[in-house]
Amino acid sequence: MTRIALEPYFLHQDQVQSLLGEQRTESARARAARRSEPEAALPYVLATELAEVLSSLGVRELARCLLEQDLQAGQIIGAELEFTFQRDREHDAPGFKPVSFTAVVDAGEPVRVTGTFNSARTASSSAAGSLAGSRRAYLIGTVTSLSAAQIELRPVFIGIRSFIGNHAAVELPAPGARVYPSDIGQFCGIDFASPLTEAEREAVLRVPEEVVKHAFAGLIGESYVPKDWGGERSDLYTSRVFARGHQVSAAWLFKGPGHPRAMDVKALGKNGDQIDRLFTEPAELLVLQHCHQIKPSVVGMMDAYAHDARRPRSYMIIDGADTGRILRSLGLLPAISATLPLQNQGSGAPRH
C-alpha cells in the first residue's frame, strides 16, 4: 500500500477546509489542538488530511488534462513543475503580500502556467524562503482562466509531494518514481556508462521495432510476445521484470525506425494518446523505448501520468543510447549494422 504525503510551503486554510469537509476539518483541528503550538501545527495537519483525500477528490495532473484536452475553468488540478516565484511588493496591502509564479508545461505545445498567492499564508516563516526563485514544487489549485497558450491557477496548496510505501524489507520502485535501466535485474550485465560509437548509433536506427521487442522480451525471459495490432494499449506486457530486486508487472511501448529522430509528444499519436493508452494497462511499471533521443517534454508527460494521485505508478525511459547498449550486449549491433538497410526490414525474433 502506498500513501501520499504533503509538506506545505503555502496552504490556504479556508479552501483546504472546504475541500476536506466538516468532519475531516474538525478531526484536523482537534489533532492540532493537542500540539504544543496549535496554530503553527494546523497547516501541517491540514496538509496531512488533504493528502489522504486527494484520490477521492479526483485531483488530476495538469499535464494529463492538457494531453487529453479535458481541462476547464473551475477544475481543481495538481501540477508538479519547475516554478519561478517572484515577490510582488508593489501590490502589498494590509494582510496581503503577493507572490506571482510562472511555469511551463509541454503537452505537445508549450503552455504557460501563471498565478498569484498571498505569502502571508505560508505554512511557516521558513517556508517563505522556499517560495522564491526557481524551485520544483507540487501545486494544487483551481483553474481560474485558460487559453491555448496560458492557464491561470489559484493555489490551494504549494509544497512537496512524496509517495511513501510500506515495504520495509525490499527497496521497491516507489509509485511516481522514475526507474532506470540499470535498476532492472535482467540488465545487470550491461555497462550503461559506456558510450556508443557513431556507427552504433546509426545501427540502432536500422533495427526493426519487432526485432527490438523480441530482443527485450528474450532478455527479460518473457515467452509470450504479441503481434502488433491497431487497438493495442502496449506492445509488450510482462510480469517477469525484476526492478531493484523485486518482481513487477510492466507494460512496454516500443518506437522504432518509423520515427528515426528525436521523440516529442507529437510523435506519440494524436494528442500523445499512446502515453494515455499505455497508462491504462494494469502494470506497476510503464516503459517507453525509442531508437533515438527522447525529449524532456515526453519524460515530463510520463512523469505526470506516473504521479496521478488516483493511481500512481513507476515509469522507465529507454532512449536510443540505452537501447544500443542493450542490443550490443546481445551481440546484435555488429551484425545488424553490417547487413540491414535502413528501411523495409522483415520482422522476427533475434536468434541466439
Q: How would you write the strand order of the largest sheet?
A: 3-4-5-7-6
User: Cα distance, first to last residue?
Assistant: 40 Å
Name the CATH architecture of the largest domain: Beta Barrel
Number of strands: 12
Number of domains: 2
Mean pLDDT: 89
Number of helical segments?
A: 10
What share of residues are in beta strands? 25-35%
Instruction: Specify the CATH class of the largest domain.
Output: Mainly Beta
CATH fold title of the largest domain? OB fold (Dihydrolipoamide Acetyltransferase, E2P)
Could you explain the architecture of this structure?
- The chain is α/β, with parallel strands linked by helices.
- The protein has 2 domains: 162 residues, OB fold (Dihydrolipoamide Acetyltransferase, E2P); 162 residues.
- Helix content is 28%, strand content 29%.
- It has 10 helices and 12 strands.
- Helix 2 runs antiparallel to helix 3.
- It is elongated and about 70 Å long.
Which structural traits does this protein have?
single chain; 352 residues; alpha/beta; 2 domains; five-stranded mixed barrel; five-stranded mixed beta sheet; elongated; disordered C terminus
Topology at a glance:
Blueprint: E1 2-11, H1 13-20, H2 22-33, H3 38-57, E2 60-61, H4 62-67, E3 76-87, E4 98-106, E5 110-118, E6 133-146, E7 150-165, E8 178-179, H5 198-204, H6 209-220, E9 236-243, E10 246-255, H7 273-278, E11 285-290, H8 296-306, E12 314-318, H9 320-329, H10 333-339
